[in-house]
Write a structure and sequence with these properties.
With 879 residues, the protein is of the alpha+beta class. It contains 16 helices and 43 strands. The protein folds into 5 domains: 25-185, Jelly Rolls (Sandwich); 197-359, Jelly Rolls, CATH 2.60.120; 401-492, Ribonuclease Inhibitor (Leucine-rich repeat, LRR (right-handed beta-alpha superhelix), Alpha-Beta Horseshoe); 544-644, 2-Layer Sandwich (Phosphorylase Kinase, domain 1), CATH 3.30.200; 656-848, Transferase(Phosphotransferase) domain 1 (Transferase(Phosphotransferase), domain 1, Orthogonal Bundle), CATH 1.10.510.10. A hairpin with a 3-residue loop joins strand 36 and strand 37. The longest helix is centred in the middle third of the chain and has 23 residues, at 499-521. Strands 1, 2, 3, 7, 10, 13, 14, 15, 19, 22 and 24 form an 11-stranded mixed sheet that branches. It has a 6-stranded mixed sheet with strand order 34-38-39-37-36-35. A 5-stranded mixed sheet has the order 25-26-28-31-33, with no helix packed on it. The chain binds 2-acetamido-2-deoxy-beta-D-glucopyranose (10 copies). Residues 424-425 line the site of one 2-acetamido-2-deoxy-beta-D-glucopyranose (NAG). ATP binds at residue 597. It catalyses: L-threonyl-[protein] + ATP = O-phospho-L-threonyl-[protein] + ADP + H(+); L-seryl-[protein] + ATP = O-phospho-L-seryl-[protein] + ADP + H(+). Its EC number is 2.7.11.1. Residues 569-842 form the Protein kinase domain.
Length: 879
Amino acid sequence: MKTHPQGLLLCVLFFITFGLLHLVEAGQEGFISLDCGLSASEPPYFDSTTGLTYTTDNGFVQSGKTSRIDKEMESTYNKPILQLRYFPEGVRNCYTLNVTLGTKYLIRASFVYGNYDGLNKELEFDLYLGPNLWANVNTSMYLTNGVTTEEIIHSTKSKVLQVCLIKTGTSIPIINSLDLRPLINDTYNTQSGSLKYLFRNYFSTSRRIIRYPNDVNDRHWYPFFDEDVWTELTTNLIVNSSNVYHPPQSVMASAATPISKNAPFNFSWSLIPSTAKLYMYMHFAEIQTLQANDTRQLDVLLNGINFYTGFRPKTLATSTIFSTIPDTCEGGKCTVELLKTSKSTLPPLCSALEVFTVIDFLGLETNQDDVFAIKNIQNTYGVSKINWQGDPCVPKQFIWDGLNCNNSDISTPPIITSLDLSNNNLTGGVPEFLASIKSLLVINLSGNNLTGSVPQILLQKKGLTLNLEGNIYLNCPDGSCVHEDGNGGAKKKNVVVLVVVSIALVVVLGTALALFLVFRKRKTPHSEGPPSSSTQTQVSDARTTRSSDPIIVNKNRRFTYSEVVKMTNNFEKILGKGGFGMVYHGTVNDTEQVAVKMLSPSSSQGYKEFKAEVELLLRVHHKNLVGLVGYCDEGENLSLIYEYMANGDLKEHMLGNQGGSILDWKTRLKIVAESAQGLEYLHNGCKPPMVHRDVKTTNILLDEHFQAKLADFGLSRSFPIEGETRVDTVVAGTPGYLDPEYYRTNWLNEKSDVYSFGIVLLEIITNQPVINQSREKPHIAEWVGVMLTKGDIKSIIDPKFSGDYDAGSVWRAVELAMSCVNPSSIGRPTMSQVVIELNECLASENSRKGISQNMESKGSIRSTEVSMNFGTEYTPEAR
Ligand SMILES: *[C@@H]1O[C@H](CO)[C@@H](O)[C@H](O)[C@H]1NC(C)=O
Ligand SMILES: *[C@@H]1O[C@H](CO)[C@@H](O)[C@H](O)[C@H]1NC(C)=O
Ligand SMILES: *[C@@H]1O[C@H](CO)[C@@H](O)[C@H](O)[C@H]1NC(C)=O
Ligand SMILES: *[C@@H]1O[C@H](CO)[C@@H](O)[C@H](O)[C@H]1NC(C)=O
Ligand SMILES: *[C@@H]1O[C@H](CO)[C@@H](O)[C@H](O)[C@H]1NC(C)=O
Ligand SMILES: *[C@@H]1O[C@H](CO)[C@@H](O)[C@H](O)[C@H]1NC(C)=O
Ligand SMILES: *[C@@H]1O[C@H](CO)[C@@H](O)[C@H](O)[C@H]1NC(C)=O
Ligand SMILES: *[C@@H]1O[C@H](CO)[C@@H](O)[C@H](O)[C@H]1NC(C)=O
Ligand SMILES: *[C@@H]1O[C@H](CO)[C@@H](O)[C@H](O)[C@H]1NC(C)=O
Ligand SMILES: *[C@@H]1O[C@H](CO)[C@@H](O)[C@H](O)[C@H]1NC(C)=O
């Protein structure tokens, strides 16, 4: 697995953010460690006994309630066992984990009842992996430590893994922790099926359970020793454990050998069920210093049959002997026997043994495209049906409400054939992606409150019956809300021809044309002639209309390189250095000032992001977003030409670097309120919505009238909405502003921008650096949180305001900022809420007259409320 250097840096910063200055274990890549039942607002924590970082399971499961084991038992267990999630509702409740397709994972779930409900019961329920039974879970206080653990080694067949708990009787299923560890692909191979853990022992008199970080894969090794017949060998020397199975050093540093020189080394166990097929992995190393005339050689027998013959353990190096085909044991009684060969002068030895049984997962998961589409529907409409969890079609008894599936052919994945969401109070539009469920023959959305128009693609789909009756605000084509196989013909409903629709269509087509031209031209770079007059007129046209109405952009906004040279006066004046090149001052048409961002040719990623930015800016127009005047795409010469922002960025003004006076509170508030509108437009006004991903004070630019505009969309990404899944492999953004949840889950979300915006708010309030190592808490959000808890409110406010502010509006902004930086995205407001809140702050600031003398008392009253609120969770108080 690759380690991105930037990722590492951010990782470190992330831990600083949460005050966990521990060594970051590079080996946790791909690990998912869930403390089930941990509160959603709790940040990830570092478990000092294991060195693992656990996160809440919130976001991985949609149902269930959280609880804690009985107080009296708390001393027996550690985190992550202390809390649990239980599932009183529904029969099947599932965790959904993002995984890499075709990768082998060790999956482990732990269950401790711990009398959490005070009923002193034992629980019985089932555990499924996708559509297949994995284990019958039985919690019992009589088990070792009362912890029930199920573990399996499984190769993923899709990009998501569903771990489901299923009610089988009266018990309410529970779960305390869920771990996922990627393994090396070429280990623990089977002919078919997955490996269900039976035991994993190392032979030592120690009582220590060995796990991560000693075991890079976080396998748990339990000590076992039969003192009657074995004697222990140990070494202080390093055993080279670098075969593919990588048993930990501490496992390989000890071994058991029979006391009696000629006795075999025997080890026996029972199989349940007795007919199960098994795979066995034995780990050996010669850890004794052998005399010149000594030899150790052994035969391995399983149930009296040769398994491996004439094996010589290597000196201080690990060898693993393992099954390549499954074995069985007669009557379920298995014995592995190590016998000294005739050449051997020494008895056999062994360090560790792992045994698994095979579970063949025969049930296929539902077609992945269908699953993706149906999840999309679920998210779009917020369908909250308790049984819409796990695989939509299988097993049959858990098929989602409202779906019909075809799984008649057991050798192909089940497909979804009908969807009935009639009378479900659904609101919003009819999404196009419904058409992406290829096998879907019936869609019944009647009796809802859908709006907008019906996508053409649905109307044209062959064989599809579409029922949209009873959605009174929906514009059905030709007035027909029942549609069959591309030839509708039912009742007339309200026919409203909206001009807006056709205009929107023109815009879309225009943009598509422009993009087509942009990217087609890329292939013929040196084809531009001298500047044409049409270019000039188009630019000035653009200028007159840009600030208000959206315009249809066309290829005439493209400039040649020679024009760029001319407009910048041969790159005379540098304005700054951007993410991937220099930014120069320029003039178009002798009057309009522009900022020309040149893409440096050495930048390897550049073209992709350049394309992204052109594509984006061409379709995004808002008064609070920096507008694109044009671009140049001529061979190696790529540049973006923006409107010139005469007053630089917000940060300079906060620092007083612009020579002018430091911005007062009211101006700062106005600037952030405007920036919030720009961001809100990206989230809600654009189709598809966009995440800016790099909101920060240096990306808030000010024009000559101090109107704020957001800049730098180089990192922006559209949400994957239709059909397309996008996996972000590199976490982008600026340290300090980066949403910790995004960093952790790599899950791109508009709430990540809200987090960054919260940091901007904290900056304009405090005028403090985002990260300052010499502060009690280096990260600004933590620092402000601590100050608020202490009730030390005044010390966070920028002293440069000199008391010239409405305390109410400042406190309100503080509250808003703190809710934006809530570690959990669910707790953060949306940008629409932020805009409303900031506009209200601004209004109260604007109407301020003669109340500044009241500030002290007002401030202190509010401060108590604030500190009470923020002392526990960062949630804004209700108004
Ligand atoms: C898993 O991936 C999907 C699609 O990429 C994404 O929408 C979802 O938020 C991810 N879930 C988590 C818990 O990261
Ligand atoms: C793992 O191995 C299987 C077959 O041995 C192969 O199909 C799959 O692509 C491999 N996965 C990775 C991530 O290498
Ligand atoms: C679970 O425990 C009950 C009661 O002790 C027992 O009857 C049952 O056989 C157990 N089931 C399993 C799968 O261990
Ligand atoms: C361990 O063994 C492997 C393979 O034999 C070898 O490549 C590696 O260098 C050895 N490591 C050490 C520390 O001796
Ligand atoms: C070891 O196991 C073999 C095969 O089950 C058996 O014949 C033998 O008696 C056992 N030896 C000891 C010392 O238990
Ligand atoms: C091996 O050599 C040692 C002396 O170096 C001797 O005591 C021992 O008996 C020898 N063992 C055998 C099996 O010959
Ligand atoms: C289910 O799909 C199969 C082909 O995979 C088809 O032959 C069969 O008719 C379908 N059954 C139904 C009820 O649609
Ligand atoms: C729809 O809304 C009505 C009124 O609020 C409510 O009674 C009904 O249960 C809702 N139906 C569904 C399926 O949510
Ligand atoms: C759609 O649902 C409505 C209400 O449940 C029902 O009356 C109608 O028959 C259904 N239509 C189709 C095509 O299934
Ligand atoms: C249906 O949607 C319209 C427009 O979005 C809204 O005004 C109306 O209140 C909604 N009706 C119900 C019953 O939810």
